[in-house]
Amino acid sequence: MKKIFALLFIIFFFVQCSSIKKNNTHLQQQIGVNQLKKDVDFAQKKIQKLHPKLDYYISKERLNHHFDSLKSTIDKAMTPLEFYKKISPVVAYIKQGHSYVLAPEKAFSKKETKAIQKKGIGPFSQFDFSFYNNKLYVIKNKSYNKSITAGTEVFSVNGIKPKELIEEYNQFYSSDGFNTTYKKQIATKRFISAFTTEYGIKDSLKYVFKLNDSIQSFTIKRFKLDSIEKKVRKLTQKIAIKTPAISREKKQALRRKKRINGYDKLSNTFIRTLDFFQKDSSVAILKIKGFKKGNFRKFYKESFSEIQKQNTQTLVIDLRNNGGGRLSEIINLYSYLSDSTFVFLKKSEVVSRASMFEGAYFNKGSFPVKAVKAIFSPFVYGYLLFSVHKDKDGKNYISSETQPQKIDRKAFKGKIYVLINGASFSASSILSSNLKGSERATFVGEETGGDYNGTVAGFMPIVTLPHSKLKVRIGIMNIAPYYQTEIFGHGIYPDVPIIPSLEDQIQGKDPELNWILNQKQQ
Predict the structure, then answer these.
(1) 408 contacts: CB under 8 Å, gap ≥ 6
(2) How many CB atoms lie within 10 A of CB 395?
(3) Which of 208, 280, 384, 459 could connect to 156 by a Cys-Cys bridge, CB 3.0–4.6 Å?
(4) What is the pLDDT of residues 443-467, one digit of tens each?
(5) In 374-485, beta strands by DSSP E
(6) Across the strands, what pairs with 325?
(7) How far is residue 271's CA from residue 269's CA, in Å, rounded to a whole number?
């Protein structure tokens, strides 16, 4: 048995290496006109076959016209990146944020990735940025060059102006519907990812900074971690600070917290946290960065037990920059927030049973994972066969989470505030829709990036175009919250609109949360 696993590992290793090499070689190749047009047809047919709400924000006639126009403009061979820039805007016309074309990028092996990480902190990661009023600013300087102050504008990076690259790539994806807050909130990440797509990962970048009327140019190099550690060690020795050893109990507690709260290694932060304000613990803040990772059931059970124990009167739920995640988690959380028996979702529309078969199960995963899935596929397909039904309107639906549910016995009874912004998307918007519609919470911040009336997500297969090898992600379930609004194509609007200024961001102020705390004191 060990020999078989060893053989499978060797085969998998060489297949992966071959796949990486093939991908990177393909990025430089020119794809012929006829092949590109066939890819357009392939993408169009797949989207029509899988996506249940193509005509929600745009008519089918207009969308088909955009696909036809795209084919008519393809008159020369293109690289995958050039073709990406042609086809992405057409998919973005659907205006469903979960459906988009993935940018073609160079692939790295685990060994190559570790080698890059070993070199230290990259020249982008040495700053915290904010895209404010169409300009990119340094919010925090973590580089070795301390002369660059917070509030400095990034005029260009390697000659590329942030605004121009952001505006170009804004065409290639969409929010849900017609709101503009989503793109504004993720513009900084979009600039860095777009720059990497265009020019690759760099060990140094030439920044041109602008502060008032002064323009300065600096080359920021990758910050080697070894040198940082040596400096810290020397400084520690000089001031004779001894760090106490962490006890075994504390290590176990930390591991447990990571397991339950969810832990993000990249940012070295927890995904879910519960904190209390003021000496009497009358105000609690539940910050949730995403509905992913961790044992959410245990976290919410313990958190609301503690909230009840502390006799908390006001609960603040921070969903800012929460891009969504598991549907099961937001339903579980809502059972602690609703004030009565509730229905969480309306019926979820799908194109057909076939669309669920194609996109729901075998689409993702490595070969070993798919082999395991094959064993259980009869049960999964059996479930899908009986769960998808045709309604009186002739459309196909899945009636999941449409039955009345009881609230948890530890459900919170006090005042609820929810903090939202344009990067509150997907599952965080579904949760917010029900809290808003049931008038259970007061919302503070700015319009969410997700549509109030729902989103097309659920299972999201990634389809590979046969010739360009571009990957298209397609949502296949229309997930609609129980509460709806007559306002078309927009997110959850705040009851109290507050947008942090650039100075707020630089100083680390939180005007939205401060407004809530001031209300409590009045």
Answers:
(1) 304, 335, 336
(2) 14
(3) 208
(4) 999 999 999 999 999 889 999 999 9
(5) 388-390, 396-398, 415-420, 442-445, 455-457, 462-464, 471-473, 477-479
(6) 291
(7) 7
